[in-house]
Amino acid sequence: MVPTERMKSLRRSTPGCRSLVYVDLKARLVLCSDSDLPVPPQEALDALCLRGARLLTGSLRAAADAALAEPVAEAVAVQGGRIEVYLSTPAAPDEALCGVLEASADPHVALDILRRGIDTILPEDAARSPANLQKGS
After folding, report:
1. Rounded to an integer, what distance in angstroms lies between the CA atom of residue 73 and that of residue 91?
2. What is the C-alpha radius of gyration for the chain, rounded to an integer number of angstroms?
3. Pairwise CA distance, residues 133 & 110, whole Å
4. Model pLDDT for residues 93-102, shown as the tens digit of each residue
């Protein structure tokens, strides 16, 4: 199964998940995405990626790490009448899943499903690069 099919399967198994985006936080780059909404403009995907990078790698992350006395690998935000969830990839901390949920969705349920599925998006032996994602490896 190629990454786009894995993304679609993971999004569909997450109640209330409208869009799911796999990003490179360091490069601020959308690697692949799936949505049941009309094709979101690239600017919307890029903005989701940027918010994820700010929450999971920037000064907000450092403040959360200090306040909680442990590393933060997830974030939840309410944005424009929807819920956004962000999860760092355990195997590749510079990569993350960003999900857009319906306002009525339970972010705890979504995070639990996404935590269990995040490592299934790319095969373990695949090189994590935009070129390989676009090829469907």
Report:
1. 12
2. 14
3. 24
4. 899 999 999 9
